[in-house]
Known about the structure:
Low-confidence stretches: none
Number of helices: 5
Mean pLDDT: 94
Oligomer: single chain
Bound molecules: inosinic acid
Amino acid sequence: MAFGFGAPGLELLLDEPGISATVQRLADELSERHEDGVVLVAVLRGSVPFLADLARAMSIRSVVDFVALTSYTPGAGRVRILMDVTTDLTDRDVVLVEEIVDTGLTSAFLLSELGRRDVRSLSICTLINRPARRVAPVKLDHVGLEIPDRYVIGYGLDHQGRYRNLRVLATADTDVLAKDPDAYVEALYGA
Ligand code: IMP
């Protein structure tokens, strides 16, 4: 489904109906698996649009909570929790909600952190799986879309804070963005 936006290296990955259908499928999987309800733990900030749509598409009760982490940069040491959940996770079915699993380091870290809290179950639901650069092997329980090694923007995914509020998912050229982070602003926002 390659659809260009008239800017070099920018292509549509998933349009709004495609996103809705994918989110609904994941919501149905979770609703079927967790009749007693779930605690959705989302990783700030990229997963917010996905979380909001996922929670509303589910037919079961859900509590929503958030974690914020220091960003992982090679050489900077391990990831740390900047903001923790306030929900008591004891004996709850907890679902980690991520917009994309790339190296897997974020998921692996959170699985080990949250797994120590006497949860009843702990699973991962990611909108996008990009296995090409996986460093930490993680079991992904619910996957919306598996993609090749392309950089993604939109629907929560950003590049240096830009493009998060796009209603679609697009793949972008990292060389173009490295030269000018605003390179796709005109094509996507018309300004
Ligand atoms: P990890 O490498 O699996 O730990 O993913 C770390 C985080 O990097 C993700 O939660 C995203 O916020 C961000 N990230 C990874 N790939 C992309 C991308 O293609 N576009 C925008 N952000 C990304």
